[in-house]
Specification:
This protein is an alpha+beta fold and about 130 residues long. Helix content is about 15%, strand content about 45%.
Length: about 130
């Protein structure tokens, strides 16, 4: 009888996990500063001091440049404080985007990290900036 109980428990756990993932509401991911973190739209990523959610990308046309700029938008929140952080290569310079939340300064990197090297399409790195 004990083996049947174990099997039922394992199958139930598997179904509960599959249901959570299939609904698109997977738990938030924990992340550390200075590491490669995979992101996807709507996924909450918890850093030690704040949370970040990838909102999506948008294009913005600038009259003095022939191609539109592509911006990658992230919602950053700490408690009730929220702000939008946007990263772009602009004219081709791949630099981190500086932002501040909760009185502290950070840098968000996409595509390339000075310390980690090339980042994949769906990877970001966030660093605590020097004050």
């Amino acid at each position: 009888m004990r083996n049947n109980s174990t099997l039922i428990f394992l199958l139930g756990s598997l179904l509960a996990f599959a249901g959570t993932v299939s609904c698109g509401h997977a738990a938030s991911e924990k992340a550390s500063y200075g590491t490669r973190v995979k992101y996807r739209p709507g996924q909450k990523i918890e850093f030690p001091d704040f949370a970040v959610v990838y909102v999506g990308e948008r294009q913005k046309t600038v009259p003095v440049y022939p191609r539109p700029f592509v911006y990658y938008d992230f919602k950053v929140s700490k408690g009730k404080a929220e702000k939008m952080v946007s990263w772009t290569t602009g004219t081709g310079v791949i630099d981190p985007t500086d932002f501040e939340i909760g009185g502290k300064h950070y840098q968000l990197e996409l595509r390339h990290s000075d310390k980690l090297g090339k980042l994949k399409e769906n990877e970001l790195a966030i660093w605590q900036a020097n004050s």
